[in-house]
Amino acid sequence: MKTTRCVYASIAVAAVAVLTFAACGASGPPPGSPEALYIDLGCAKCHGDNREGQRSGPALVKIGDHWNEGELLEYLKSPRTFVESNPRLSYLDEQYPIAMPAYATTSEEDLRKLAEYILNS
Asked: Which tens digits make up the pLDDT trace of 13-58?
């Protein structure tokens, strides 16, 4: 009898949790969306949730004024190599304490989504 009550109680708790989650809705951007990639790849940690920049990374607003998609893709794949071949970026690189990670293993499709999101936001 005790076992049956425990099982029913567990089912009730699980049902309440599921209904609560469903009623509140899932927060955050849909998986695979450019916004989710920005968060999942860690961009928001250094560049801010709204690309406003922080002490650990520069603002990413209006970077389309200075970057095109090809350049940004190349940079995302190998930031160190890109900075070394582009003197205009050296001064920015020195201003921030955290090195930009390389996304060489991230799919081309995801990097394109991310680049478009950053360039057009």
From this structure: 444 444 444 445 558 899 999 999 999 999 999 999 999 999 999 9
Per the prediction, the chain carries an average pLDDT of 83
Task: Give the domain extent around 39.
Answer: 27-119
pLDDT at 12 (0 to 100)? 42
Domain annotation covers residue 73: yes
Task: Count how many domains the chain has.
Answer: 1
As a whole number of angstroms, the distance between CA 23 and CA 91 comes to 49
CATH of residue 108's domain is 1.10.760.10
Between CA 104 and CA 76 the distance in angstroms is 8
Tell me if 83 sits within 8 A of 89, measured CB to CB: yes
Find the length of the chain.
Answer: 121
Q: What is the CA radius of gyration of the chain?
A: 21
Tell me whether residue 111 is in a domain.
Answer: yes
pLDDT given for residue 4 in this prediction: 52
Q: Is-contact 99 79, C-beta < 8 A?
A: yes
3 lies in a domain?
Answer: no
